[in-house]
What we know:
This protein is of the alpha/beta class. The chain has helices at about 10-20, 25-30, 35-50, 70-95, 115-125, 140-145, 210-220, 235-240, 290-300; strands at about 55, 65, 100-105, 130-135, 150-155, 165-170, 175-180, 200, 225-230, 245-250, 260-265, 275-280, 305, 310-314. Helix content is about 35%, strand content about 20%.
Amino acid sequence: MSLTDDPVDPRNLRALVAVAEGGSFRSAAQSLGYTQSAISHQIATLEKRLGTTLFVRPGGRRRVELTPLGQLAFKHAQRVLAANRALEGDVTAALAGERGTLRIGTSASTSHLLARPLAELGRHSPGVEVSLSNIATAEALAHQLDRGQLDIGLYINIDADERVVTTTLFEDTWMVIAHRSNALAAEAAMTLDALDGMDMIAWHARWRAQAHLEQLWRRRRIRPRIIYRTDDNLMIQQLVANRLGCACLGALTVEHLIDPDIRRIPINDELPPRTLALCHGRGRELSPAATVVIDAIRAAPKPSHVAIGQPRDG
């Protein structure tokens, strides 16, 4: 391998990542705004620089694939480009005077877990402004962490991703909530089969955990009648309290009930996972405020009604 002291051109690394993710030189050219010949030249230059072939080129319209050494180069390229974005993001934030702002991404069922950690932050750094954002998907969260648009995330069901560092906190459990007049409310525990034919309020299926739950229902031929969908957890409880149906939710969501007539019913059955994780952008420097909140989240007592798992880093 004929490497020199000259750094690899970031444009060539961007071309490598774009081709690998898009599966073709044409798609990479479209995404980066280059001609296809320019992308080919950048990849050829990188292959010459590294002294190895990075892609298997089958010809025609078939997808190009990374070679084993191409896979290695691809992972390094992702890290280098993420570090470059981190540099740009941190400098931009500093110039804009935003180092005193902590930006946290959450899902609808995790934001309330930040109350005590943010109180700790207030005692430690009272001048820090905190911005909480409800992020629609795990992919969007990873993208914003990678781009420096968020500092940390507290989210359910984050996939392994080269762009983020993830620490699993615990496994949330599923529960059904129902009005006390509902037949389910008398049960000490139940299986999913009891939901067949029941009127239900549900999250939108764009949430991965909800989509997996509904796939499980279909496999087992369980057919509840979903009559309302909303991502507003407070609204779900209000609808249940008004006897408009029951709901199958994460235990974190129903830790605090708004009406004494609502009952929680544990589920003893096969269920899709609901894994709570703390995450931040790989290679990004954590501010003192972010470190305070992360330490407080890790030290916080686990909520009731959850299955506590062994924390692990990834």
